[in-house]
Design brief:
By secondary structure, the chain is α/β, with parallel strands linked by helices. It is built from 5 helices and 5 strands. Strands 2-1-3-4-5 form a 5-stranded parallel beta sheet, with helices on both faces. The longest helix has 18 residues.
């Protein structure tokens, strides 16, 4: 199960469709508040795919909040912003990755598969 958090409706729908076609059960949220509410109701996520820059709460802040409740969870941070040097510089946990926008859906699917398989191998 994948929690997808993207504030741009068109991008969210496209990614949701691509992930679902690849066999993932996707729970989509338009912002961090909705994602937090969904994570409280539906605890079982294998991965978070989230935009980095969002109103009120960033993707990294969202992931940290969810992890404080549910424990470490594989996360893909996506962004088209070029000023995210902390993320690009590798200041991520081993179970987190950064994917710069724009990207091909196949690239995202490969990264999602890699992170989920890695998490399963550690269990």
């Amino acid at each position: 199960r994948v929690l997808l958090v993207e504030d741009e409706p068109l991008v969210r729908r496209l990614l949701e469709q691509r992930l679902a076609r690849a066999g993932y059960q996707v729970v989509a949220a338009a912002d961090a508040s909705e994602a937090l509410a969904r994570s409280e109701r539906e605890h079982a996520f294998d991965l978070i795919v989230t935009d980095v820059v969002m109103a009120r709460m960033s993707g990294p802040e969202l992931a940290a909040e969810i992890e404080s409740r549910l424990g470490p969870i594989a996360t893909v941070f996506m962004s088209g912003h070029t000023d995210l040097e902390a993320i690009r510089a590798g200041k991520l946990a081993p179970h987190q990755r950064f994917m710069p926008k724009p990207f091909a859906p196949a690239e995202l699917l490969a990264l999602v598969r890699e992170l989920i398989e890695s998490a399963r191998a550690k269990r």
